[in-house]
Specification:
12% helix; 26 strands; 3 helices; elongated; mainly beta; 316 residues; 55% strand
């Protein structure tokens, strides 16, 4: 038997074994997903029983909302092959979703089969302050109408992150890969770190006592009505646009994108510095050739881009 024939037979044998194993797992028609028996699980805790919630989930979306009962409430679906484990560690409740490997793979391939069962919801009372740390793979994460957070960490892959009507006194860290970041009507008393790969960052009605550090790759930054002490913004292959921006220090670096910023303030109060490798400068809508102004001012706007124009305007 020659070498080529042996290789061919080996490949055929591997393929047959693969088909048999796949058939057993799927019961012939991807049945391990369709016929999986899911059970609704509902947990209730007192408001002060835990002060931190730590989630690590696969192929699940997570939503955090205010409680209407005064208790902490948690709901999700559980099954033999896609089970959820709850671990208690002092004042921290840790939730781990650890599906068996083939279920994790094919539930991602056939998301419509999982649309009913992949949702988790956490309801928090407004009478106690909480820390949230939520990590998800192949699922969106949303936190809404929570004004009593001590710290907020959100991370997802292949999903977007939404934070709406939220107040937080500690560090806020939001990171996604293959998804966008959306913040709307939030008040943060510390620093904010935002990171997005292959997705944009969208901020509206954001008040931050500390610094906003935002970085996006293959996506732009869009901002409207933002107030912060400092802003450090970076974009690769995306533009940066902002309206009604209030900050004493704003630094923007972008590649392959324009910068268009409206500052809510007086032009004479800012040291303005603009630099582009392939574009034009505009001040209050008028083309200009001078790119540095008011170097004696402590408030500073430092904008740099390649392959894009820079536009700066002031409300006063």
């Amino acid at each position: 038997m020659n070498k080529a024939l042996r290789i061919t037979l080996a490949l055929v044998l591997i393929a047959l074994v693969g088909v048999l194993v796949f058939g057993l797992m799927t019961k012939g028609t991807f049945g391990f997903i369709q016929n999986e028996e899911y059970i609704l699980v509902e947990k209730t805790y007192t408001a002060s029983e835990y002060s931190k919630f730590d989630f690590e989930v696969d192929n699940r979306s997570v939503t955090v909302l205010p409680s209407t009962t005064g208790n902490v409430e948690l709901s999700y679906y559980d099954s033999e092959n896609d089970f959820v484990e709850l671990l208690e560690n002092g004042d921290t409740l840790k939730l781990i979703n650890d599906p068996v490997w083939y279920h994790a793979i094919f539930s991602g391939i056939f998301p419509t089969e999982m649309s009913i069962y992949n949702k988790m919801t956490l309801y928090l009372p407004q009478t106690v302050d909480y820390e949230l740390d939520i990590q998800s793979t192949n699922g969106r994460v949303e936190v809404s109408e929570c004004d009593n957070l001590l710290a907020l960490t959100l991370e997802t892959t292949n999903g977007s992150l939404f934070v709406n009507s939220v107040s937080c006194t500690g560090l806020v860290s939001v990171e996604t890969v293959n998804g966008g970041v959306y913040l709307d009507s939030v008040v943060f008393q510390s620093n904010v770190e935002l990171t997005s790969s292959n997705g944009g960052i969208h901020l509206e009605d954001v008040l931050v006592s500390g610094e906003i550090v935002a970085e996006t790759t293959n996506g732009g930054l869009e901002m409207d009505t933002i107030q912060a002490n400092q802003m450090d913004l970076t974009s690769v292959n995306g533009s940066v646009d902002g309206d009604k921006i209030v900050a004493s220090q704003v630094k923007i670096v972008t590649t392959n994108g324009h910068i268009d910023m409206e500052i809510d303030g007086l032009f004479a109060d800012y040291h303005v510095q603009m630099l582009t490798g392939n574009g034009s400068y505009y001040l209050n809508g008028t083309p200009v050739t001078i790119n540095i102004y008011h170097t004696d001012q402590t408030n500073k706007l430092d904008f740099k881009t390649t392959n894009g124009s820079i536009r700066v305007s002031f409300t006063e």
